[in-house]
Design goal:
- 44% of the residues lie in helices and 12% in strands.
- The strands form 2 sheets. The chain has a 4-stranded parallel beta sheet. A two-stranded antiparallel sheet has the order 5-6.
- Helix 5 crosses helix 6.
- The radius of gyration is 14 Å and the shape is globular.
- The chain has a single domain, classed as Rossmann fold (3-Layer(aba) Sandwich), CATH 3.40.50.
- It contains 7 helices and 6 strands, in the order E-H-H-E-H-H-E-H-H-E-H-E-E.
- The C terminus is likely disordered.
- By secondary structure, the protein is α/β, with parallel strands linked by helices.
Length: 145
């Protein structure tokens, strides 16, 4: 399993051509293993729609439900362990609560995170999905699009 950052999940479900080919390849190659989506990503999508930074082709709740039904996708609820881990991430980490929860989810679940977020990619305390070769890696190296 791999945890998808919110922007990856949205672009993948929307078949957004701006999703880098390396990410598309990774998603295709790892589909049989499945992907986690954090509950906070549902909130983040709704918030982005609310503030006008994301336009969806369907009402928000209907879009989220459909995106969670995509084969291979599993919703990860916010657990007490994830909530506590999000407040105790090794320093330094930026203060975006959604990113804290997403990183904490990857750490608690012990899975790689597929992201293009530069701040998360620069954070050495989370496994980043390796889009250059099969399997997870520890080193960071992609750019946010």
């Amino acid at each position: 399993m791999t945890l998808l950052d919110t922007h990856i999940w949205v672009r993948w479900f929307q078949m957004d051509p701006s999703l880098p080919a390396a990410c598309q390849d990774y998603l295709r190659e790892h589909l049989s293993e499945g992907f986690y989506v954090s509950l906070i990503s549902c909130w983040e999508v709704a918030k982005l729609v609310q503030i006008g930074r994301l336009n969806l082709p369907l009402p928000t709740l209907k879009w989220i439900r459909g995106a969670l039904l995509r084969p291979g996708v599993e919703l990860v609820e916010l657990t007490p362990e994830i909530a506590v881990e999000a407040t105790q991430l090794p320093k330094p980490f930026h203060r975006d609560p959604a990113d804290e929860i997403i990183v904490a989810t990857a750490r608690v679940r012990n899975v790689p995170l597929l992201t293009l977020d530069r701040k998360i990619l620069a954070y050495p305390h989370v496994r980043i999905a390796d889009t250059k070769s099969p399997g997870p890696k520890s080193a960071n190296g992609a750019d946010k699009s």
